[in-house]
Amino acid sequence: MEPNYDKIIVLIIVFTASFTTWKIIKDFYITKFHMIFAHLIAIVTASFMLLSTMFLFIPKNFQRGISPEVELSFTSIAIIISMLFTLYVFFKYIPSNSNKKN
Fold it and tell me: Is the CB of residue 21 less than 8 Å from the CB of residue 46?
């Protein structure tokens, strides 16, 4: 049984995106709410990121046992990077700029 490197790469990408989302959201909300509420909001958001990134790698015509379970593509990786960049801009960059203007 040969190792399937596509699955390993997809899992690393998905878990990294979820952890990064959790960290960005938790750092933002910890200044506004109690630590437990910030952590819960971050966990829920990271869970949605985990699901949405996994859906990006599912093949279009998946048949169990016949087609591969994941499909590694450049567009899926580009979408994940753009989602993380958008989260970073909304939760790190924009709030710090609005505080400097006041």
Answer: yes
**DSSP per position, 4-69:** -HHHHHHHHHHHHHHHHHHHHHHHHHTTTS-HHHHHHHHHHHHHHHHHHHHHHTS-TT--TTTS-S
**What CA–CA distance (Å, rounded) separates 1 from 70?**
17
Low-confidence ranges of the chain (pLDDT < 50): none
Q: Left, alpha or beta for 2 (phi > 0: left; psi -120 to 50: alpha)?
A: beta
Residue range 88-99, pLDDT digits in tens: 888 877 666 666
pTM strictly above 0.85: no
Q: Which residue has the tokens 């960049």?
A: 85
Query: 67 Cβ partners below 8 Å, 6+ apart?
Result: 59, 61
